[in-house]
Amino acid sequence: MGPREPDKGGRGRAIVVASALTATFILGLLVSRAPSVAAAGVTIHLYGRFMTPTGWSVTPGSESDPGPLISVNRGDHVTMQLTSEDGTPHIFWIDYDNDGTIDAGEPQSLQFTGSTSFTFDALQAGTFTYWCAIHKPVMRGTWVTNASDITPPTIASVAAVPARQAPGGFVNLSAGVTDDTAVTTVSVHVVGPALDVNLTMARGALDEWYLNRTYESPGAYSFTIWAGDARGNVQSRGGSFSIGTTEGGSFDYGPLLIVSISVISATLGLLIWVSRRRR
After folding, report:
1. Does the 8-34+151-249 domain belong in CATH 2.60.40.10?
2. Confidence check: pLDDT of 23 > 50
3. What distance in Å separates the CA atoms of residue 266 and residue 259, rounded to the nearest whole number?
4. Structure pTM?
5. Which class would CATH give 41-146?
6. How far apart are CA 69 and CA 145, in angstroms?
7. How far apart, in whole angstroms, are the C-alpha atoms of residue 50 and residue 55?
């Protein structure tokens, strides 16, 4: 029985599985390392009055109708501190569906004639009307809950220059990355012969990020660029390059070979000329 052929297919599958697991690990790493967006604790003090001047205010004695615009972010933990300035009963309430009636899930306080407070999580994004439920249609104002950023960065382009390089030569990996808030981290996962490495990319001009380094081992290389923003959203995009060889064939040593043959031919010609001169 002859020597057993190595299971090249099995080895290839193992490499693919290992690369997929590594990519999954990097995604988790980026998500865990990106700055977390903890819900903010927001305290709002409102003063209410039905007697003139009617309305709401964030400072005593300056009520107006409509009252001040109030803005929070989705996910904020909101504490409402409420004071009745005229001693009459009030109920603070945010009308999420703008139907004019108090519905389940809409933030509302207990009735108060002095001071009270209640808390809720601002989970519904949009622009709404807040009221005194007792004195509606007066004592109202505008409430805005801003939507959270859920859009990942955009990787508009990736490039490896040159796409084919000699062993030991530099390959510049670059990416154009933008985001609607701020790009906080860009890294690249490079996999090739005897190489599996995660590297941080540097920021260049405008929205360009790059990594310029050498690669020694001939073969095909793949890379995946990961970009994260301040809200923890991530995006990825991949590419490839080769060192010494490509999928389509060998690295082009033609120019070097031509020079070498020319040098050898010139040397042989010189030796023949010297030999004939000595005869």
Report:
1. yes
2. no
3. 11
4. 0.46
5. mainly beta
6. 11
7. 6
